[in-house]
Amino acid sequence: MLTSKQRAVLRSAAATEKTLFQLGKDGITDAFTAGCDSALTARELIKLSVLKTAPVSAKEAGEQVAARLGAEFVAAIGSKFILYRYSKNKTEHIKL
Questions:
Q1: Could you tell me the CATH superfamily of domain 4-84?
Q2: What phi and psi values does residue 46 have, to the nearest 5 degrees?
Q3: Is 85 helix (H, G, I), strand (E, B) or coil?
Q4: For position 26, what pLDDT does the model report?
Q5: 82: part of which helix (H) or strand (E)?
Q6: How far is Cα 47 from Cα 34, in angstroms, rounded to an integer?
Q7: How many helices (H) and strands (E) does the chain have?
Q8: What is the reported pTM?
Q9: Which stretches of the chain score pLDDT less than 50?
Q10: Burial level of 61, CB count in 10 A (0-12/13-18/19+)?
Q11: Nearest alpha carbon to residue 32 among 20, 43, 45
Q12: pLDDT at residue number 63
């Protein structure tokens, strides 16, 4: 569980990141989840976007994807959401 200060650090770090994936009308599929899983393993912090045609909001999507992947839902800002998961594969980690 992240504290509010840790969430603030992660939100500021994600501000400069590019959106990696878009969630569309198909919703949260296995392929979408697999892509997010590999991205979290490589980066620890990812930003995703939810299109207007998606069946869920950014907050709902973030919470559902985080639950599936064992990640932390950091925040939903407009149509984007941020996920964080500590990666054992990285040599340099995000300082919380």
A1: YhbY-like (3.30.110.60)
A2: -135, 150
A3: coil
A4: 93
A5: strand 80-84
A6: 15
A7: 3, 4
A8: 0.92
A9: none
A10: buried
A11: 20
A12: 96
